[in-house]
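FAQ: What does a ligand-bound record look like?

Like this one, built around 5-O-phosphono-beta-D-ribofuranosylamine:
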Amino acid sequence: MNIAAFASGRGSNLKAILEKIESGDLKNAKISVIICNNSKAKVFELASRFNIDSFHISGKTLPDKKQYENKIMDILENYRIEMIVLAGYMKLLPPGIIKNFKGDIINVHPALLPRFGGKGMYGINVHKAVIESGEKETGVTIHYVNERYDEGKIIKQIKVPVKGNDTPEELAARVLITEHNLYWRVINSIINEK
Ligand code: GRF
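The answer part, i.e. the structure of the complex:
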């Protein structure tokens, strides 16, 4: 399965997936290309470490929406991509990409959707909101991607406890471990089903 990974930042979820491919736990998966909207993102270091082609595509350098979409589409076609994995990608995918890859795009979110999702609910904001609303548990959601932030069909969720004295950073770290444990397994199940 040829996979394109989209990321915007440090890429720890992508790293966890690449390590599972490398160790042979995640079979029949290849991250063929990485697309990132932030030229300074750490994920580019990961791309060179694992010898994966990577592209910086941003709305700033490519303001024309159609050109932006076409550029992404060209890359996905060139690499014969069959599945898109969003791993900390902060942008909405262009509508043409969503349409063409319907049912083949997945995302990881660091909370139990549909709660604590949507625009603005990313990074530490999610964990701050969870703690502020007094939740006893949060978690990780892997879901299909549609045109709206965090609204696609849920594939798998795992709960993570919120401790009384958790700071948002402590909670984020606990949730992140679960993300790393879960994401590759979901990719594995999808590949096996196909
Ligand atoms: C993760 O918490 C993920 O759930 C969210 O963005 C964060 C990305 O972290 N969508 P990383 O870049 O994978 O380290």
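Follow-up question: can I read anything off the structure? Yes, for example: Residues 7, 9-13, 87-88, 108-110, 176, 179 surround 5-O-phosphono-beta-D-ribofuranosylamine (CB under 6 Å).
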